[in-house]
Design brief:
Distance between the termini: 14 Å
CATH superfamily: Ribonuclease Z/Hydroxyacylglutathione hydrolase-like
Strand content: 25-35%
CATH architecture: 4-Layer Sandwich
């Protein structure tokens, strides 16, 4: 099994949104912002090559948006995913499976290309996967979250991308299991990858950056913050006990980390590149 980070571009968000109720004098010490309070984030996908399967976790934001949206969200290099794959010896046609942790725009819209008003699949030979709970929730989400979903793109993936819906925790592929977390959005599907006696966990929006590891340092994007707190605490205790390697999708500065549990709660043990 080969695990290969794939770059899908950059975007940005308000620091207050990334760290919720935590005061800026605290979070800005560990995750910098510019003069406008904007933090820069990355879109870091993960390719899992098992030989027979080439499984891509997440697909980035894509290039579907008007200039105002791109400026407001700090889009940079959001078409970089094919170049990043090519740099590592792969083409979009090689991808057999695309796993979406959830269906917010920055996680799945890059699986579709818009050309002259028409859609086509970025990964034409792939089966696309998400949780059944997230798919159903995306259809009924409330006004606070609704802008994160692009129904036309999601419906196209469903109809043309052989979308498979995962109903609960399971081993999805040999060495790759998924667990459901509901605090950020119902049915967020987090991959746990076991390779050479190590377990790598793709963090998605369960813990978007290493700076979000302290229990109460939640992003304001979490739909159910109390649930998110409880899930996060339980997961980080397990991660510390079992020495999981956390792989961050959005952290510009930290690719991976391990954690330890202290009297004050979870703490970064070690940061390192993949």
């Amino acid at each position: 099994m080969k695990l290969i980070p794939i770059h899908a571009g950059y975007f940005s968000c308000d620091g207050g949104a990334l760290f919720g109720v935590i005061p800026k004098p605290l979070w800005s010490k560990v995750y910098p912002a510019d003069k406008n309070n904007v933090t820069k984030l990355t879109l870091r996908c993960l390719l899992v090559d098992t030989g027979d399967r080439k499984i891509l976790i997440e697909a980035g934001v894509g290039t579907h948006y008007p200039e105002k949206v791109r400026q407001n969200n700090g889009h940079e290099e959001t078409d970089a995913i094919t170049k990043s794959l090519a740099d590592r010896g792969y083409s979009p046609e090689d991808i057999t499976d695309v796993l979406f942790t959830h269906l917010h725009w920055d996680h799945c819209n890059g699986a579709v290309i818009s050309e002259n008003g028409q859609f086509r699949l970025q990964f034409p030979n792939a089966t696309h996967w998400c949780s059944k709970a997230q798919w159903e929730h995306s259809k009924i989400s409330n006004i606070r979250e609704r802008a994160a979903y692009y129904p036309e793109i999601l419906n196209f993936i469903n109809s043309e991308g052989n979308m498979q819906l995962v109903d609960g925790d399971c081993e999805l592929f040999p060495g790759i299991s998924v667990r459901m977390f509901d605090g950020h959005t119902p049915g967020q599907m987090i991959p746990f990858i076991t390779s050479e006696d190590k377990t790598y966990v793709y963090m998605a929006d369960l813990i978007p950056t290493a700076a979000n590891i302290p229990i109460v340092w939640l992003a304001a994007y979490d739909l159910f913050p109390v649930t998110a707190l409880e899930e996060k605490e339980k997961f980080l205790k397990e991660a510390a006990e079992k020495n999981y390697i956390l792989f961050f999708e959005h952290d510009l500065y930290t690719e991976c980390a391990t954690v330890e549990w202290t009297e004050k709660g979870p703490k970064v043990k070690e940061k390192f590149g993949f």
